[in-house]
Amino acid sequence: MSLLSLTTRWPLMLSALFWAVSFCPQSIHAATIMDTDSNLEMAVSVLDWIHNAEGGYFNPKQALQKTENSTQSPVGVFAVEDIEEGEVLMTVPWELIIKSHDKNEEGQMCCGTVAAVLKEMKLGEKSKYHPYPAYLKSQPDNDLPSNWSEKAKDLLYEIVGVPQGNDPRTSDFDSIPPEEPIEWLELDFNQKCHGSRRDNMARHAALLVVQRSDDYIMVPGYDFYNHRNGKYHNTEIRWEHESPHVTKASRAIQKGEQIFNSYNFCAECEGRRSHYGAAEILRDYGFVEEYPQRWYYNNLGGTIQFDIDEDEETGEVKIVDWPTRFIPKDEYLRYARVWVRRQLRRQRRIQNLNFHRTKWPKIPEREWQIIWDFHKGNTLALELAREFLDKQYEQVKLESQGGALQCSSPGDAACATNVTAALTYEEGDHHYDLLKYEPDDLDYISPTCDNGEVMMFHDYTHLESLQTNYQPVGFEYNEEMDDVCMDIDNIVQICSCYRPQYHEFVTHYAARFIDTVKRVLFVGGGDSMLLFEALKYPTLEKVVGLELDQTITRKSFKYFQTQPHFDDERVEWWFGDATKSMLLLPEEYWGSFDLVLVDLSETVMSLSVTKELDVFDALALLLNKDGVIVKNELYLEHFSDVFDYTVQILYDSPIICSQVVALGSNKVDFLHDDAKDHEIPNLLYTPLTKDDNRFDLMHDYRKNDARAIGKCDTITPPIDTSKQDTSAGILEIVNAEEVSIAFDDKAKIVKLLQDVATEQGFTVGPSKAYSGNLVVAVLKEGYIAARLWPEHNYIGFDINLWGKTFEIKSLKKALTKAVESSLVSAYKIVVGGMFGSSTWKEDQVKIGPYSKTVTNMNRNCKERETSPDVAPIPKRAIEIALNQTFTLLDSAYDTVTVGVVCGLEGSDCMSFDIADSNPLVTTVFKFQTCDSLESEEKMFQCEKALAEQWQDFVNESNKPFDMLMVDSSAPYEMLQIFNSILDADEVRESVLNTVNVVLAFTAEPKEEKFRKFFLDRYRIQHGDDPVARAVFELTHAGEDVVEIGLVYCGNTLYVYSLEAVEHNIKERLTDVKVELTTINAGLFPYDFDFEPVNFEQKDYDNAPGLKQYAEQHPLGRQNVFQLEANRPDVELKFDGLFKMLKTAIQTAGFDASAGKFEKTQKVGDGGLIVYSSQVANVVLVWDGRTHVDLNFFTFEEGRGEKVNGSVPEKFITGFLRASEKSLKINLRDDQPRGTGRVINFSSDLAPEEEAATS
């Protein structure tokens, strides 16, 4: 149901009128009429008509009276007697209601209703609804902005913000609600209803329907009730098709109270409870509502929504409700704060410079006043939002530092206190930016093409959906495109059609900066596609993969044929929580990898590995001194905090439109270092190693100063061996095939396990053979389990170590050598450990990121050499550097026009002299600093004068500026003024050419940061690529720095051009160090004709994967359940765990008495229990605290699905129930055991002809 559109519009001439209605049994008449206005008489006649109709009723306890200071109508309905809750106020019979012929028609302008109203208005007194059509016809036709004067529309659009361009990401970025503020006639009436622009009565009828209809019906009399929310709203309505329309009192109404309806908070107004407020009421009803008001803003990457109200005693207006779901979180909070500030400055700029009555003389007074009220309301709402968001930011900051919760809702007392926010804001009513730090809030996340239809996957066949132990996963296939896609959490992760665009570029773009690729680590690449790329390097010695979810790896092998290569000695998989996995990586891994490839979500990246390190910090420590780390998505800022050199690349990709990848290194300078062609065969990626292509993908670049940002301290804390705070272990799954030794005698295998463990330095405990095929050797440091299949020449080893985990590789190698296996597949699962382990102190210094003392990843922390005897950077050097910046425009224009912002008249202006003497420059225009900028009014006057000078010059010369130079003599206030001028899109686009440069320089970059922020703002103002914010540093005698900053717009080859400028300056300045330290580009270009390169699944070499898929022979199913205490007060006991295990075995359908239990304690603070039978076996490990691992194996795999009927589910359900819910599953791994390099369960091994990609 659309929402009510009902209000009364009384002519302004009646503002002094007071009148009331009294009632007789059969009539309604004006008891006191101080004016004989026919309009009012018609209103009375409408009520009389309703009251006298069969079934009609108008309650005599109410009357029409004059309203005081109402913004919507001078007349309203008031209670003349007390009215009880639920009392009927008015009943309008169905026969009296004008309606559309189509009861299913939706929208606020129902075309059928418009036609019906128009028909009755034309009939006049002959209408069966008379006098209502006559009353409607008498109402003004210009109440709504859609039919205001043209000048009023222009001013309203200036306040709302006219959408800029066609890019759907930015067209509304600097606009505020309402959307389509004046479009009811142009879009709905003309296009939807096929109305005529020349039929004024029809247009009038259409706007009346917008204002007064309730869905598809026009209810006479009901539209006499005005609108107001909050405590003032005191009505409710009930109606159904072909039934009377009834208005009742929703609460007791006292005599003298006005009776109000609500246009967005009525009982049937659910669709307007959000994203509808004061702005939409102006658009749809033509007035600015009285307090309370709802405001929402949705063009800032999300939506904020809040209600404001006025204190009746103090007159203070404040936020009274801000629903939690509309409070921005995380990065969005930063962006929301910036966006609100920008809108406040824009509104105040309009107020200070444009909102003058003399500038808009042709706007009727009523329209002018409504626009002014709307502008004031928006400005106040934005100001209140700014204060609230600043306090939210402070709250988040305090919480992150362990502080107390400061406020949770606008009404809290703590929220009313003053707090210091990281972002500053201007005091007073001026609109000038303080030119201090603000986060970059451009919407880089939105798609860069129209991929909405593609993302629906309409032409794809659904292959499989499943809930893994961690996430929902789905696979789809398009036969025509031969395209397989995988989604996680209903978000597409990868498709065959763009595998090269992601995995080839992520791997090989980074590898081109590595001389010899030997060691690679990837995180999150469970689909094995990064592994596929890494294995292309013939020099590769080790590749390590960290992945949480085994199911992703196994299902990707099934549908993409991407082999995990468990059988390759160079490949090492660690399945489990990455934060735990990294704590177990051995000492020699840290600082050893050439490439670290990261494919993790932002949430995971923010998790802690240690108290000092999050996931990203820890991953950075894995790189060797020459290594490169790569992260998908927007990570330039994060990388810039951790690495000396960072770069961000951008390129097209099917389905997702574009791909962004960030790279970081402490040795590789991505802008200046040569790249190497490794001659790796690829489907798409070509080596970018030549002068004419090496920067083709580069979007952003940074050279970062580690010392300046405080990143040069040693981060390794002393290792505390006085107590054991944590415990973790490794379970290595080893499938030893083609075993040559005889192993029918299980006792010999027991002896073999003991001997191998002893030779490798482990301490052997009780070991034995069990019923079924299980053999277990218990160690002080863990255990080794072997499941024997002599008939298949196969042994399935489980090597579970909680001590000396750094020796697990040598132990695995020794075991497989001892059984003479010629085909070994292996991978690791990170599991629980053992408190009180005999080796835990030794382990602390052998594993994890603190096994080595690392000083923030080999960053360049050398002190700058300084010399007091060396003179400052000479003026000549600055002149040479500035002159080279004009070459950025050399190829764009035959003539170059430059504007220069100088200091006060009579002061030196180096920039003007340089521009005036440069042969490339044909015209120079000087902006002199205005006198006396100490007051806001003086700044307003200066801004108007400068803007007029600039526009006049451009109009007269017919030549916009190609460059705007801000001289070092120009003061802070002038940069504020020019920032304001450039902030208006239409002005900026008219006075600057398409290819343009805005430049500012300073010899005091630390003291004059406002120049830097002025340029940062201009990059944001320009927004869309191609645009590049660049910084050139000239250094001399260490600390002596001249910073030349610029924003370069309109050239897609900006990286090549900027690097060329740097090169040219260096050639001319041999005694000054010159560095291009920053290239920060804009919003990724939107591609309206997106036609990417697509690939098919058959383009990849599927043969090896299909061969392995067909050779698999699962022999059983293994489940590893990791349980944690469900409550802080849980205390586990060894005997209690034994009882839980027995219960779980019985619940799984096994006879516990038919198997054998073996309990082993004193392997630390915990213990180990082994159960074995002919059909299943379990190894339980308790860490002595609150963690339990259950290594469950059954030959009865069935289909192995996670349903109540499957054996594993029965087993774990029984165990948890027996624990009386004191334990919960924290992590879980499911894997098949068998031969043929088994990866998939039996349920996955469909006949080959059924495979989608066979």
UniProtKB/TrEMBL annotation:
Domain SET, residue spans: 60-264
Domain PABS stretches: 430-601
Keywords tagged on the record: Polyamine biosynthesis, Signal, Transferase
Pfam families referenced in this protein's UniProt entry, alphabetically: AdoMet_dc, SET, Spermine_synth
Co-factor(s): pyruvate
Keyword Plastid listed: no
Keyword Nucleotide-binding: no
GO molecular function: adenosylmethionine decarboxylase activity; thermospermine synthase activity
One GO process term, biological-process aspect: spermidine biosynthetic process
Active-site residue list: D599
PROSITE patterns: PABS_2 (PS51006), SET (PS50280)
SUPFAM superfamilies: S-adenosyl-L-methionine-dependent methyltransferases, SET domain
Signal peptide (from-to): 1-30
Family under the similarity heading: Belongs to the spermidine/spermine synthase family.
Annotated protein name in UniProt: SET domain-containing protein
Source organism of this protein record: Cylindrotheca closterium
Lineage of producing organism: Eukaryota, Sar, Stramenopiles, Ochrophyta, Bacillariophyta
